[in-house]
Design goal:
Keywords: Membrane, Transmembrane, Transmembrane helix. The protein is mostly helical. About 70% of the residues lie in helices and about 5% in strands. Helix 1 runs antiparallel to helix 5 and helix 2 packs antiparallel against helix 4.
Length: about 110
């Protein structure tokens, strides 16, 4: 019972850290008058979807191909200009990173070494 509670606390801390980091990231899409200008945005969405689909449903068959598509999708998202990073305070960053790191450590190892 205690191990399950530690894993649950780790998961809650992990999602709390992701929430605080996610508050400062804005994903936008725009209207392009020419077809070729929307190509990186379309390719990023397709690569991300293929990568997630391969990792979830065909993990054994595809090997690292899902991770490769996911990485290409993330790079194309930043290259297409569809991500805006808002400024954040140092305090907010410290809280988010601490919650994320502590939650990950609790989820994987079940303890925190100081």
């Amino acid at each position: 019972m205690g191990r399950l509670l530690i894993k649950l606390i780790g998961l809650i801390l992990l999602f709390t850290g992701l929430y605080f980091f996610g508050q400062n990231i804005i994903f936008v899409s725009g209207y392009y008058s020419y077809f070729y200008r929307s190509l990186p945005a379309t390719a990023s969405v397709l690569a991300t979807m293929i990568g997630i689909f391969a990792l979830v449903f065909f993990r054994r068959e595809t090997g690292n191909l899902g991770w490769i598509f996911l990485g290409i999708g993330i790079v194309l998202i930043f290259l297409s200009g569809g991500v805006i990073l808002k400024p954040t305070s140092l305090w907010n960053f410290i809280i988010a990173f601490t919650a994320l790191a502590t939650g990950y450590k609790l989820l994987n190892e079940g303890r925190i070494n100081f």
